[in-house]
TrEMBL record:
Enzyme class: lyase
Any matching Pfam family: AP_endonuc_2
Pathway membership, UniProt: Polyol metabolism; myo-inositol degradation into acetyl-CoA; acetyl-CoA from myo-inositol: step 2/7
UniProt name for this protein: Inosose dehydratase
Cofactor(s) demanded: Co(2+); Mn(2+); glutathione
Gene3D superfamilies in the cross-refs: Divalent-metal-dependent TIM barrel enzymes
Record-level Gene Ontology MF annotations: manganese ion binding; myo-inosose-2 dehydratase activity
Length: 296
């Protein structure tokens, strides 16, 4: 049985930050109420969440929810470092006030994840050695800033960015200081990219401090490659879904994490069109599957 693991769900199944038209009519209150109703104890932060910490704490407290973390876009490879660090400190202080221990960081320099027409697999950015150098140096700085508040940064490998593949994750882990940079392990992004998700898990287990549980519909993933779709088009088509509804067997993932003594959050994060995939229905489906497979 897992000790010290808590279960959260991301609001992206209800309302999408990159495509606000998805779930545009769904309120913050509906989103967090349904999270609690489905049996989750935590959430990440979405675009409809109040930024006033007292207001947010009250709304979450009424429903027995905590904030697990929140996404931060860094631009260390493409903009002056000061721009990223200034925004990061505001983000860090907000999350610290909300009681979060980790900060999700993803490098968005040259990213195509938010571009509606750019083919995902044909035009994925590849960092130069100079950009790698700026990224590593910048992440170490962000890690130091997080440590000032007793927090960690967890790097989110992501489709359509310069850190997507197993090879890129390996280089990032080799060149960063383990005391300053941890890894966010995301099943869905690895499988969609065509990587061996269990190999990445086992290779970097000691660095993993946050976990996103996301499943993949393989027939749509294949279609995205063949038809040269963008990341956002893939999401709209339904490439991602909740654990237990796609091709990934999560039992080995849970077994490996449990054997390693992982402590922290598991976050169900499966962006779909809520008009097609009812968010409460899918949250309940995920909660049931995770209970069956992990005992949580």
């Amino acid at each position: 049985m897992f000790q010290g693991v808590k279960l959260a769900i991301a609001p992206i199944g209800w309302t999408n930050d990159d495509m606000p038209e998805l779930g545009g009519e769904i309120t913050f209150e509906q989103c967090v109420s349904e999270m609690a109703l489905a049996g989750f104890s935590g959430s990440e932060v979405g675009n409809k969440y109040p930024r006033n910490t007292e207001v947010l704490k009250k709304a979450l407290g009424l429903r027995g929810l905590e904030i697990a973390s929140a996404w931060f876009s860094s631009f260390l490879t493409s903009k002056p470092c000061e721009e990223t660090t200034k925004a990061f400190m505001e983000h860090r202080d907000f999350l610290h006030e909300m009681g979060a221990k980790v900060i999700v960081v993803s490098e968005q320099g040259n990213s195509i994840q938010g571009q509606m027409e750019t083919p995902l697999f044909d035009q994925k950015p590849v960092f130069t050695d100079e950009e790698w150098g700026r990224l590593i140096e910048g992440l170490h700085l962000l890690g130091d800033l997080a440590a000032e508040k007793g927090m960690k940064i967890v790097y989110h490998h992501h489709m359509g960015t310069g850190i997507q593949t197993a090879e890129e994750i390996n280089r990032l882990m080799e060149e960063t200081d383990p005391d300053k940079v941890s890894l966010l392990y995301d099943t869905g992004h690895l499988v969609f990219s065509g990587e061996d998700h269990l190999q990445v898990l086992n290779k970097h287990m000691s660095r993993i401090a946050h976990v996103h549980l996301k499943d993949v519909r393989s027939e749509i993933a294949n279609k995205v490659r063949e038809e040269k779709m963008s990341f956002l088009q893939a999401v709209k088509q339904g490439v991602f879904t909740v654990p237990g509804d796609g091709v990934i067997d999560f039992k080995p993932v849970f077994d490996a994490l449990e054997a390693s003594g992982y402590k922290g959050w598991f976050v169900v994060e499966a962006e779909q069109d809520p008009a097609i995939a009812n968010p409460l229905e899918y949250a309940l489906k995920a909660r049931s599957y995770i209970r069956q497979q992990s005992g949580l």
